Amino acid sequence: MDRLIYTALNALSVNRDTQVMQAQNLANQNVPGFRADLPNEGGTRFLTALQALPTRAFQVEQGPASFSTAAGALTRTDGELDVAIADQGFFYVQGAGGDPALSRRGDLYRDADGFLRNGAGEAMLNPDGAPIELPIYRAISISDIGEIFVPPPGDDNAAPELAGVLATVMPDPDLRLTKGVDGRIRQPDGTLPAPDGRATVLQGMIEGSNVNPVAEMLSTMQTQRQFELGMRVILAARTLDEAGARVLQAPEG
Questions:
Q1: Per-residue b/e over 65-89, b at no fewer than 16 CB within 10 Å?
Q2: Is 209 helix (H, G, I), strand (E, B) or coil?
Q3: pLDDT tens string 166-187
Q4: What is the pTM of this model?
Q5: 239-242: Cβ within 8 A, 24+ apart
Q6: Phi, psi of 22 (to 5 degrees)
């Protein structure tokens, strides 16, 4: 009976974590460049007692959870500061007071101080790891390798000059990336791969989230049914335990 109850409780705990992940994905389905979180299946661990066989099995997470690397849908906006990465690759960003990270978000803007930021307020970084600062401009063009060109101030007819470069990277397929506690993408040890400029940058395009709302809703319904089955197992265990206790009671009278 003890094993049955603890097995059911462990299953409910796993379902709870899955529901949190699904809620996170659905809440970010409209965030540009968001990467959907994937469940961490983990492994099985046995609780052992001294000079006794294992009596309880638990599912525990192994290592950091992963995320979907599938590309999101591309939408043409023709905005000068709207950029997206074709297929695989990442931009380099840095949040306020945080460490550099990787991102697919490309809804950019020039803030009041002249720095280039994305829609989350993260500073866009150049290959040297420094925030990109742009002069006041009337027109801007971004090449497919992330080079940012603007005409010299006061002379719109002059040839555009290089104002900055968006740092990008195309990670190796074997490189493990994960989301940290701040929700940003890095390697498990908190470091980042070096920029290589191999990602293809598209100007005038925005990449949406790669969350599939239909798949997430169906998965949520399935997780809820599993949670209800776990509760039924616990209630059945209580009924069996109470029935066994009544059998062991001494006869009255």
A1: eebbeebbeeeebeeebbbbbeebb
A2: coil
A3: 999 999 988 999 998 888 999 9
A4: 0.78
A5: 240/1, 241/1
A6: -65, -40
